[in-house]
Each structure stands twice: as C-alpha cells, then as structure tokens.
Amino acid sequence: MEKETCTFSFCQKPEVVVVEADLLLIGGGMACCGAAYEAARYATPKGLKIVMVDKASTDRSGAVAMGLSAINTYVGENKVADYVKYVRGDLMGIIREDLVADLGAHVDNSVHLFEEWGLPIWKKGDDGFSLDGFQARDEGKALLKDGGTPVRSGKWQIMINGESYKVIVGEAAKAALEYNRKATGMDQNLYERVFCVKAYKDANEPNRIAAVAGFSVRENKIYIFKGKAIINAAGGAVNCFRPRSIAEGQGRAWYPVWNSGSGYALGLQVGAELTMMENRFVPARFKDGYGPVGAWFLFFKAQARNAAGEDYCTGENFEASKKLYSPYVEKLGTCLRNHMMMMDMKAGKGPIWMNTHHAMDAISKTFVEKFGEKDAQKKIKHLEAEAWEDFLDMAIGQAGLWASKNIEPDKTPSEIMPTEPYLLGSHAGCAGFWVSGPGTIPGAPKEWFWGYNRMSTVKGLFMAGDVVGASGHKFSSGSHAEGRICAKSAIALILDEPNFKPVIKETADEISAELYLPFEVYEKYKTFSTDPFTNPYYIRPKMLQARMQKIADEYFGGCATWYMTSKTMLDEGLKLLGMLKEDANKMAASNLHELLRCWENYHRILSVEAHARHILFREETRYPGYYYRGDFLAINDAEWKCFVNSTYDAATDTWNFKKVPYVELFA
Ligand code: SFD
Ligand code: AMP
Fold first, then answer.
1. Using CA of residue 387, residue 393, residue 394, residue 396, what is the dihedral sign?
2. 240 C-alpha to ligand 1 centroid (Å)
3. 20 to 30 Å CA-CA from 206: which of 82, 294, 476, 657?
4. pLDDT > 70? residue 609
C-alpha cells in the first residue's frame, strides 16, 4: 500500500516552538512530580533549567487523578529486605532486587513529604481504633516523620484521605518548577496539554537522547523540547486490550484511560532496552465499576468466595495449581489468586462474591465487645462511611454502581472478577525498561550499573514509575520516590558533561509533517465519501482502536480466551498487528482531539507489540492468572528463571531478544 505523506497541501501548517531545557521531564504524574520537586533543589543553584511536559493538567493527571484511599508502599517499621522479598514473591521470583531495595530505602521520605504538604494520613487513636486523617490532625496526632503510627491496611499499605492526593503532590511539583523558572529566567517551564509523540537521538553523539516532539491539544502548535537529560515517566498502557466495558461504558477502565503506552513507545522507538514486557497486570476488581479490592481484603478483612461460599484459593484448586506452579503458588501472589478464582469461574462456580456484609458484621461484633453498644454504633457508622469513601476516593463510578444496584455493603455482597490486561511497572506488574541500578546494593552484578541510577540503555534517557521494568509494587509513593532518584542522577549527568549540547538532525518541517500527517490524510480525502467517518482512504482512530483491541483480545490472551494464548495464536495476531501498523499510516484526524487519539493508538500498538513478542519469546507460563501459554502451561524455572530483554530497531522495524540471568540478592 502506498504510504501517505504530509506536504501541508491540504492541512494547515502548525507554528513550531523550540524549547531548550537542561532537564526535560515527560509526564506529570507521580514520578514526574517527584522528579520536578527533587530536580529543582539541585538544578536551581547551578542555573540549570527544568521543563516539564504533561499531556493533561498536572493537578489531576495520571493514575492518581481521581485520588486514592491508600498509599500502598510505606516501609515504616518493616525491613527493606522484607519488602524486596515480598515484591519478589508477588512477581513470581524475577525482579531487579537492586532497584527494589533502592526504592524501599527511599520511599518513606516521599510519604513524609506528602503529609507535610497536607495529605491527611490515618493514625492509630489512643483506644487502638483508627482515626481518619482529619480526626488524627484534630487530635494532634504526631506526623509520621515524628513517630506517628499509621493505620496499616496491610503490612506495606497505609490508609489516607486521598481524594485530593494528586492535587497536593502536583502543587508541590508546580511550586518547585516555578522556583526554578524564576531563578533561571524562563518564560514558561510547565507545558500542560501537550502530547509528546516521539523522542529523537542526538545528531553528533550516537546513542544519546536529545529531544522530544509533541503537539498542543488546544492550539495549532508543535513543540520540540531539547534536553541534556530527559526523564520519561509517561505512565503505563491502558486500552491495548478490548476492555470488558462496552459502548459508552468504555470510558471506564481500572487504570487511567489517558495512559496510552506513550512511556513505552517513546523509549522503545529510540532503542532503549526493555525487560519483562511479557508481564501484565490483570487486577481482580469489583465488577463493572473497577473498585479496588485491597482495602476490602486487607483492612476490612472481607473474604472472597465462590457462589457456594467456598474459598477458591484452597482445596482442589490449590492442589492442582501446585502441580504446575509450585513453589510460587504457596505464596498466593496476585496472579495466582486470579488463577484460582478463574478455575472456579470456568467451572461455573461463579459469581465470585466479595462478602462485604460478613466483614462488616464481624467488625460490628468486635466493636461492640470492645467499646460497648453505644460507642460501637458511632464507630461502625464511621467505618461504613469509610467503606463508601474507599470508592469515592479512587473509583467514583463504583460508588455510583453500588447506589444503582441497591448495594449496601453492610447488607449485600458485591461481585468481583478479573479485568482486561494492563501494561505497567509500578503496581502488581513489572513491564518496562532495563535501567541502571544504584550501584550500591551488595552483590548486584556490575553490569547492572552503568553510571547513572535509573538511566536506560540510551544515554541521557532516564525512566521512572510505570515504565521501569522488573521492579513493581512501587505504587504512588514509590513512583514519586523513583522520580526523585532519577532527577538526582540526571542532574549529575548534566553537571558531569557541561559541554554537551543536544542537536537533532530532523528539521522542524519534517517533524511537523510527521506529527500532522493524520490531519493531511483527513483533509485530503474527507470529501471522497458522503459520511466522513467511513471512507476507503483512511481509518479514524476509533476504528483503529477497535481493531487493535480485537487482535490483542483474541490472539494475545485477553478476556475473550480467558487470557490464554500460544505460539500459533501469537504468530497470527502479530501478522494482523503488522497490517494494522501499516494502516496506522492512514489514520485520519478531523481535529486536535482526534490527532491525540491517533498518536495514543500508535503508542498502544507499539506497547502491545512488545508485550506479545515477549510472551512469544518466553516459553513458559510465568504469570498464571495474568496470562497462559497453552503450549507451555507450567512454570519452567530451569530454563526461564531469567529476565527477558528486547530492543526495537525502528529503522528496520525489527526486534532483538535475549535472556539475561536473574540474580538473587536477598536470600
Ligand atoms: O487501589 C503524558 N495506584 C495505587 N497506588 C497507591 O499507592 N495506592 C493505591 O491505592 C493505588 N491503587 C490505584 C492506583 C492507580 C489507579 C489508577 C487506581 C488505583 C484506580 C497506582 C499509582 O497510581 C501508580 O503506581 C502511579 O501513579 C504511577 O506513577 P507514574 O508517574 O508512573 O504514572 P502516572 O501517575 O499515571 O503519570 C503519568 C503521566 O504521564 C502523562 N502522559 N505526558 C505527555 N505526553 C504523553 N504522550 C503522555 N502520556 C502520558 C500523564 O498525563 C500523567 O501525568 S489500588 O489499585 O491499589
Ligand atoms: P488493590 O486494591 O487490589 O490494588 O490492592 C491494594 C494493595 O493490597 C496492593 O498492595 C495489593 O498487592 C494488596 N492486596 C490486594 N488484595 C490482597 C490480598 N487478597 N492479599 C494480600 N494483599 C492484597
């Protein structure tokens, strides 16, 4: 098929703005907010300019947009070594323990900062009962950094009043950026509503990053941001797979729909090495509303059971799972809990119920015994409110669904089920880039450190948050801390090489033509059919997305096949995806919003391609409950207890794969 090009014969040429930064931050979520805060402290006294680019508005961008009701990584009274072992257990034995240990050592400081900036954190009251963040404040409870005792939902998780979590963290990042802007004399250093499309390497120094180009989603403007070092923290990939939600409900997914794989696409297109992209996250969630289950399991001690009231993680299910997945199944990690839930669902023993009513009953009884009837009632009401707030904080649609289905959590159970797959590296998943470690963790192989902590295999391109591979369970707090770690080492690189000046060989015209191609295609052909939505000369992003999701769902192990795939299925799916990639050149956009949709889809295609190719390379089922290789249904530690790393060559559209030995650092 002939390739389309943009000569601006049909669409309007955009204004091109070139922004020169020392440190460039891509994203505006938890990791980038951490990076902005930390970088400002080190860069500003040296006169270095920091620029941050976010596709949305930083106050409410990224995964924490709606708010959260728990901070899932706070080490506190625990040991960092135990955190590493917990993460390893949950991620089926293969993680970069140097990265995880480094994160564990730094994460609490970010949590202390959140509290200082105004985030209300629950504390233990004198009677042992939980005080929510506001009550704790009113009662003068000590801050965490001063020895205050948090309310733990689990060993690593603490409860917060988190509706405004992102606003609070965003405000601190924006203040830091503003401090840097004023001190270095920039007109602007926070670019919101600018979608970054592509990264570019330096024209003079091979394998060094130099710039990122993007477009405004509000104005007819293209930006070329140059940076001596660049931190990529543009989040994970949502909506690669066909979601369970249908029609207008498709706006609802568990992870944020606006995290569209840009983080992966930006790095892999310049050849940054990936690791563990075969991993994915399939969270068990309250059905249809995607409400989180963690607080219910851990804090309210609710039990999930099949329709007959049986624990699906025991008995026959457990014994059968042991045959294929021992010694991992014994740890009951996240994917294996899914696995056993699905065994029952497939056997027709569903629905699976989260017994919120039994949990509330049990709590009521304990309260009455402990505090007496009168006091207990007040406390129970408060707890009920918290149960609702758990959803109002971070999955508001779930609260709506509860209301519409007449569900009162103290009287009625709720259905839970596994969602569609997501690609991410900060929650209970670990798909991302291969980065340098800190170089300070005893026993770490020397190849795991190449000078600058969290730098990818492309010089100057750093990674933080969801896009860092083989080190999951960072969550919101850990992603913030990792952004800070990254910022420090990126500034060190800039200071170590003061003479480096990023230069790219691509011209502004070439970049504009590439980014605006979907406009040109639309304007050129839109009158060729009576309905501009349906046209033989182009494909609108909505249709392309449907095609991509169908391929991923049916061939790469989505919900359609109960997450099952195999070599033959992957081969066929990849063939179809190759054709889709070709057709992506014919995507058409009628306005800036659609242009955004076009490029988001392209980023998703690259992300899901990496995912499928990794699954194909790893000939075992490492993550039962997340995905299955029907042709290699067991875990095979003898051959596959290793990292799988890949690089993509954009010039030839080819992939290279290798095994990298796993090394255990914490026995
Ligand atoms: O309930 C571009 N997370 C939870 N973490 C916790 O600590 N506690 C919880 O309670 C958590 N839970 C939870 C969580 C997330 C979600 C969605 C729900 C529930 C419903 C996980 C954390 O939120 C997550 O780990 C971190 O936020 C990850 O940080 P980071 O920085 O890697 O990603 P981000 O925050 O989503 O930010 C991404 C940014 O990139 C921008 N962006 N900018 C420019 N150009 C492009 N092309 C871009 N593409 C994306 C985005 O706008 C955003 O600013 S629970 O499940 O356990
Ligand atoms: P979730 O709401 O599922 O994202 O979980 C929040 C936190 O609780 C994460 O750290 C999960 O790993 C953890 N978690 C959720 N469910 C369970 C469970 N059944 N057992 C142990 N930990 C869990």
1. positive
2. 16
3. 657
4. yes
Question: Quick one: pLDDT band at residue 368, thresholds 50, 70, 90?
Answer: confident
User: Is there a contact between 391 and 66 (Cβ–Cβ < 8 Å)?
Assistant: no
- Is the beta carbon of 304 within 6 A of some atom in ligand 2? no
**Residues with C-beta less than 6 Å from any ligand 1 atom:** 26-32, 53-56, 61-64, 68, 70-72, 195-196, 214, 233-235, 254-256, 258-259, 262, 292, 294, 394-395, 426-427, 465-466, 475-477, 479
Cβ of 313 less than 6 Å from ligand 2: no
Instruction: Identify the pLDDT of residue 1.
Output: 66
In this predicted model, what pLDDT tens digit does every residue of 273-292 receive, in sequence order?
Answer: 999 999 999 999 999 999 88
Domain hosting 397: range is: 284-418
Q: Quick one: which H or E segment has residue 130?
A: strand 130-131
Does the pLDDT of residue 565 top 80, yes or no?
A: yes
Q: What is the CATH number of the domain that holds 309?
A: 3.90.700.10
pLDDT tens, position by position, 291-315: 888 888 888 889 999 999 999 999 9
Is 480 inside a domain boundary?
A: no
| Burial class, 138, CB count within 10 angstroms (exposed 0-12 / middle 13-18 / buried 19+) | exposed
Q: Kindly state if the Cβ of 72 falls inside 6 Å of ligand 2.
A: yes
- Cα–ligand 2 centroid distance for 625 (angstroms): 15
Domain membership flag for residue 341: yes
Model's pTM, two decimal places?
0.97
Phi, psi of 120 (to 5 degrees): -75, 125
CATH code of the domain covering residue 573:
1.20.58.100
Last residue of a domain, one of 418, 438, 460: 418
547 within some domain: yes
Residue of minimum CA distance from atom 8 in ligand 2:
294
- Three-state secondary structure along 520-566? HHHHHHHHHCCCCCCCCCCECHHHHHHHHHHHHHHHCCCHHHCCEEC
Whether pLDDT at 325 is above 90: yes
Question: How many domains is the chain partitioned into structurally?
Answer: 2
The H or E element that residue 191 is part of is: strand 190-192
For residue 641, being part of any structural domain is answered with yes
Atom of ligand 1 nearest to the CA of 68: 10
What mean pLDDT is reported for the chain?
95
Is 110's C-beta closer than 6 angstroms to any atom of ligand 2? no
Task: Classify residue 98 by burial, with Cβ atoms within 10 Å: 0-12, 13-18, 19+.
Answer: buried
Domain stop point among 391, 418, 445: 418
